[in-house]
Amino acid sequence: MAGASAPKRQDTRKFFENLSGAGKSIAVLTSGGDAQGMNAAVRAAVRMGIYVGAKVYFIHEGYQGMVDGGDNIKEAKWESVSSMLQVGGTVIGSARCKDFRTHEGRLKAAHNLVQRDITNLCVIGGDGSLTGANLFREEWSSLLEELLQQGLIDEEATQRNSELHIVGMVGSIDNDFCGTDMTIGTDSALHRIIEVVDAIMTTAQSHQRTFVLEVMGRHCGYLALVSALACGADWVFIPEMPPEDGWEDNMCQKLSENRADKKRLNIIIVAEGAIDRHNKSITPDYIKDVSTVTKPGRYTEPQILPQKHGPLSFVVWMLVSFTMGTHHFVSSLPHQKKMPCFFCHQTQEVQKAMDEKKFDEAVRLRGRYLSFENNLSTYRLLSFRKADSELPNSSFNVAVMNVGAPAAGMNAAVRSAVRVGITEGHKMFAVNDGFEGFYKGQIKEIKWGDVGGWTGQGGSLLGTKRTLPGKHLDKIAEQMRIHNINALLVVGGFEAYVGLLELAAARDKYEEFCVPMVMVPATVSNNIPGSDLSIGSDTALNAITDTCDRIKQSASGTKRRVFIIETMGGYCGYLATVGGLAAGADTVYIYEEPFDIRDLQANVEHLTEKMKTSIQRGLVLRNENCNENFTTDFIYQLYSEEGRGVFDCRKNILGHMQQGGAPSPFDRNFGTKIAAKAMQWITRTLKESYKGGRVFANSEDTACLLGMRRRTLVFQPVVQLRDETDFVHRIPKEQWWLKLRPLMKILAKYKTSYDVSDSGQLEHVTRVRPKDSNTSTAI
């Protein structure tokens, strides 16, 4: 693995080791409505707290348990949070507490905390829970003074507990909190919605029905909007943007037009808090009545969908490192930042704007952190087809193609590109079977209706192959000349990246390649330079995590067992690492972090000692190309032999199941938005390069990769990414997720160090990105 071609390794062991929780007590509670993922947050907070030497407590039943005290507040051990990672809801209980809203209730809560010297709170809940926590902190000094005057605590206890530090993690499926991109539970809720929508679609198609689906979101339309974007819904109603007066006729007209175009199903999604311009509720039953009365032959069926059923130990670092005056924060996910609690107030400002019918202001307030405005504009762009007379006058032909292995979300990206291209006035062409189909002339025009229903389809409906263009440049240039292709959008993996490099390098010889070209990364391996994430990798991670959960569950009731699981990814360890973190793996072997037989032996011994306690299950993940000698069979045999008498082993190779299945909501949404952005760049670049009656673009910045870096979509010339690429092993030389590996080891009870030097922000790109909105945009 050594040599000039080897990638530049990030040493994940060289991190600052300044975490110390000795002598401190931390309490973890969940409050308000439950949300999937709360248990994962509890587990991470407990284990990181114990790791740094703090005493950690559970507070059962939320604020009610804090007020009642007694057995509701118990010390947590390392084993206390075993086997809870994949469990929904919250195992420590949650409750809406009226007592805590009173001064007397908060006084009791303060007394119960002081009795245990708890001055650090980790609160997992929604807006109300975090607002209550902030009020509790503001009153803390006066509460202690009152307890002292009543003789319930002494002066020493008052001094010892003089400061209350609070960190909040937002647990709410509605995703309604300003200051974070994604709240705990939102992604799981989206999964439930999309699963039901996908199932309903088959029935709707069979019987030509219109389904009206109500989703949760009393004050926030995020779930409705993103699920509408992810499933290609025909209409969506959200509280932040009520429809204009007369929407009933407009909606029915669109439904009728869809039927006239032989579309067999219509999906309408409505948030439970949807209203019209006069603050009147819009309900599924009303929508049904409107559509059936207006069009008696149409069958409309309302449905109400159930939707309830990452590494967050950064909060512990915040708790143990607080100083005077810096003690109330919310942990948020523009890359695990800490945000002041005044964002609770900003969240309430959204509702205030809606109450005052300032709906544009409400969308703006949501949009700063949730990309809400971007989601809304993308939905409008893709869902409302303009009449031909309303389209811009364009004579450009744009080709779109898939290259490389199939990845879930590719079809959503193609649908988005085709529809945005048509909206921009272009004639869109589909290339079947990648570059192989290109040079064979498998090219045809693709229309708006041709991509209907593609969003939820897995694989590649265009067809995709790994063939590179290098040996067929003459024929590809000829096909571009025949079809007068003026721009090219490539959706694919590493082969797409290399292929675009080859086309750009051939511009001096072939003038046909002097057109705008852009690549959108789509591969389960997530190994494309210039992008933190690729279309398809989220779906693959979901498959890995779900399979690991099922595999561990299969051993329920048996003796202690360790599972050795092999994942895909080539030489890239992203799937194994992040999948291992999500599934609670004990060890993950990857190519980027070399290991030898001594490391293997140490891992076996470590797991053997753990299995001698109350731990019943072990999980070891191995990236398929992590080491040519230490194969999955070798590791399986090693663990089986060394664990004899303590645990037995089973092995599983997940294989191509990681590539299959319907795309996740994230991959649908990501593919849709990134392809729309790519097409807008193509339109802009075509206009800039059209001179003398033809398109001519041969500068570096006209052959780009559109990647996501730190939440921002950035166009990067592919030739400038060469130096960031290890072509031998098909991976980037620098990979952000390697910083997660120490955290994974800590949660598996290894002694290691963890980087907390950057305020908990797991960010790796230090390059200054262009501020021009034409170059980058928030996702």
From TrEMBL:
It comes from the Eukaryota. InterPro entries: 6-Pfructokinase_euk, ATP_PFK, Phosphofructokinase_CS, Phosphofructokinase_dom, PKF_sf. Pathway: Carbohydrate degradation; glycolysis; D-glyceraldehyde 3-phosphate and glycerone phosphate from D-glucose: step 3/4. One of its GO terms (cellular component) is membrane. Its cofactor is Mg(2+). The keyword Protein biosynthesis does not apply. GO terms for molecular function: 6-phosphofructokinase activity; AMP binding; ATP binding; fructose-6-phosphate binding; identical protein binding; metal ion binding; monosaccharide binding. Transmembrane segments: none annotated. Residues 26-289, 397-682 form the Phosphofructokinase domain. Keywords: Allosteric enzyme, ATP-binding, Cytoplasm, Glycolysis, Kinase, Magnesium, Metal-binding, Nucleotide-binding, Transferase. It holds the Pfam family PFK. GO terms for biological process: canonical glycolysis; fructose 1,6-bisphosphate metabolic process; fructose 6-phosphate metabolic process. Its EC number is 2.7.1.11. It catalyses: beta-D-fructose 6-phosphate + ATP = beta-D-fructose 1,6-bisphosphate + ADP + H(+). Belongs to the phosphofructokinase type A (PFKA) family. ATP-dependent PFK group I subfamily. Eukaryotic two domain clade "E" sub-subfamily. This is 6-phosphofructokinase. The lineage of its organism: Eukaryota, Metazoa, Chordata, Craniata, Vertebrata.
